[in-house]
Amino acid sequence: MEFELEYNSERPLMIIPEYGRHIQKLVDHCVALEDKEKRNVMAKAIVDVMGNLQPHLRDVPDFKHKLWDQLFIMSSFNLDADSPYETPSKEELQEKPESLPYPKSASRYRYYGNNIQAMIDVALSWEEGEKREALVYTIANHMKKCYLNWNKDTVDDDVIFNHLFELSDSKIDLRNSEEVLSESRNLLRKRTSQQGKSNTKNFKTNRTNYSNNNNNRKK
Which distant-in-sequence residues (6+ apart) come within 8 Å of 114 by Cβ? Predict the structure, then answer.
């Protein structure tokens, strides 16, 4: 007795492998049906089975529309059946999306991030006055925090003011300002204190667990 074995290497490639080869064969059989009413009935049945095989699609808005689109894609757009939705076209599927521009980083000072540049642009759009001045010094203080988080060292206010002058295209000049930003030492002390509290808490937890384990062993 001889058996005709069908190897995957000899089978045609599946268009959407997630549904398996049996669904692909059902789609091919549906396309080959001559009676359109039978095609419509079978197409709806295939969509129902596809929905059962991909239950996570139920969380997708209008998941039935997605299943019908996938059905036409698996038929290489050769299926002539009545869909409750607009039939997709092959040109739509092959159309390339528009390229997205890369985000522009804030000069060479990447540790400030793009949000700082956006805040500077907002400050420049405001009229001169107390509100704008307050916003400018808020930005400078935030820049100092970002600098310390990245470099983990002290920094003079003059450095921050020079960076702000560059990032604002020379439109915000605090280089001769007598205003003092948040102390570098205070920021570092606060960060170190938070880390110390976390380490102390973990040490106490570990010591309690160790003590409990010893008591259980003695029992």
Answer: 103, 104, 105, 106
Could you tell me the sign of the dihedral formed by the alpha carbons of 141, 143, 148, 149, in that order? positive
> Is 192 inside any structural domain?
no
Top-confidence residue, 143 or 11: 143
Domain ranges, residue 132: 104-186
- Tokens read off for 211: 């003590």
Based on the structure, what is the number of domains in the chain?
2
Q: Does 196 fall in a domain?
A: no
pTM across the whole model:
0.47
- Chain-centre distance for alpha carbon 190: 31
- The two tokens of residue 93 are 């599927």
Please tell me whether residues 16 and 75 are part of one structural domain: yes
Total residue count of the chain as it appears in this document = 219
Helix (H, G, I), strand (E, B) or coil at 189: helix
Could you read off the pLDDT of 61-116 as tens digits, one per residue?
A: 788 899 999 999 999 999 999 999 988 888 888 888 888 877 665 567 888 888 88
